[in-house]
Design brief:
elongated, 3 strands, 412 residues, three-stranded antiparallel beta sheet, 19 helices
């Protein structure tokens, strides 16, 4: 455990957050260091080392002159290509691990992107390296497997149909930032560097693009008689990859409803906000325990139920939240120093990400606080007797997910 977090959280948030270390200067220095480490690791070019040490040749002087897996495959065969893949994935993995330990998922992405640049322009090999496709794919595999799966599926189908690896690489470089932004949001620390990396990859494929236009680009052959792979194998792989990609999209973007009443619903994220807010208030100066977590989850569920039921009753009576209640919700993050777990240099976004999770925004918290204020104002207006009667009458129509409750209490 680190500052009350499970060890797995270190790889998502990083030591800087979990040990209460913050500040702009520390952030900048840390980013520079992990990017430098990533670049130096990325500069260890497996294709160049393998070709020189094992085959007595420099891969950059063979075939297309590119120090990457595809040229190794064409020049030295499948075994050498597999070793190249393992080496490039391994060095990228170490870079991402270093970044994750320091600054969580964002650090992992940045160190990984620096590793891609090192692969392209390796300091150890006179700044002449590969095109970075495999290295970037490794970053996505390690940092966001679902994005990797979707883009790899597209890549494989394109290559299976056209036999051109370069075509698959360029099209996936165009697709990658779009898919990534859908899965992790438009985080500038990730999306902007990724877009730049993808543009560089496309630029480094400019000769391939020219050959594709001229019809002279080399095709890939893995099977016998000049075939890529037997047709039935290609069909099976494409179907499996497509099914897995569709499933990952469905599981990621389906809405999980934690509490439901009539046509109004609360997602797992909404219930999490209520639970964590109650927990942070309750445990101020107290020792935490699993028994208290269960009690607080029940309180969070009861709070969510009352918010939905009383909101429905208030709307049916044409009531609305007061201006004071709305303003109190909007100004919740005005003074971050007063909130539980705040740190120097925090913004509303970084505070929400650390306390509630990366999928929670300040607007989400404000919305829940406003809903709670709305329910509280209605309770005060009609009195406890009518409120309790409404809640008791609605009890049988409120559905609650035990699975989501357990998931929230286990993680938070």
């Amino acid at each position: 455990m680190v500052s009350g977090y499970a060890f797995k959280d270190v790889f998502y948030y990083g030591f800087l957050y979990l040990t209460n270390q913050s500040g702009t200067a520390l952030f900048i220095i840390s980013m520079i260091l992990i990017c430098a480490a990533g670049y130096l690791l990325g500069s260890i070019n497996t294709a160049v080392i393998l070709s020189k040490k094992v085959y007595g040749k420099d891969i950059r002087e063979c075939g297309s002159g590119n120090a990457g897996m595809t040229n190794v495959l064409r020049t030295f065969g499948k075994k050498a290509a597999i070793i190249t893949v393992l080496g490039d994935v391994g060095k990228t993995g170490i870079a991402c691990l270093i970044g994750a330990l320091v600054y969580g998922q964002t650090g992992a992405f940045l160190a990984g992107f620096a590793s891609v640049l090192g692969h392209m322009w390796p300091v150890w090999f006179k700044f002449k390296g590969g095109k970075g496709v495999l290295s970037l794919a490794s970053v996505m595999l390690l940092c966001c497997p679902k994005v990797f799966l979707i883009c790899f599926t597209v890549f494989f189908i394109i290559v299976a149909v056209s036999k051109y690896i370069s075509l698959g690489s360029v099209l996936c470089a165009l697709l990658l930032p779009i898919v990534t932004s859908r899965f992790i949001g438009s985080q500038n620390y990730v999306i902007i560097p990724q877009i730049l990396i993808c543009l560089i990859i496309i630029w480094r494929h400019r000769t391939n693009i020219k050959r594709l236009r001229e019809g002279s680009e080399n095709k890939i052959h893995l099977g016998k008689e000049g075939k890529f792979l037997p047709k039935w194998i290609l069909i099976v792989i494409c179907v499996v990859l497509t099914a897995a990609s569709v499933l990952s999209i469905v599981l990621t973007f389906r809405t999980e409803y934690a509490v439901t009443y009539k046509n109004d619903k609360m997602t797992s994220a909404d219930l999490r906000i209520i639970f964590i807010t109650l927990k942070n208030t309750y445990f101020t100066g107290k020792e935490r325990s699993e028994d208290h977590d269960e009690e607080l989850m029940q309180l969070a569920v009861d709070t969510a139920k009352s918010m939905l039921v009383l909101k429905d009753a208030a709307i049916s009576e044409n009531r609305s939240i007061s201006e004071a209640g709305r303003n109190n919700a909007i100004n919740y993050f005005k003074d971050l120093s007063m909130l539980y777990g705040s740190k120097e240099g925090d913004t509303a976004e970084t505070y929400c990400h650390r306390i509630y999770g990366y999928d929670i925004s300040p607007n989400d918290v404000i919305r829940i606080i406003a809903a709670g204020a709305f329910a509280g104002e209605y309770r005060e207006a009609v009195g406890e007797e009518k409120t309790n009667a409404l809640l008791s009458e609605a009890e049988g129509n409120v559905k609650v997910s035990d699975k989501i409750q357990k998931a929230i209490t286990a993680k938070y």
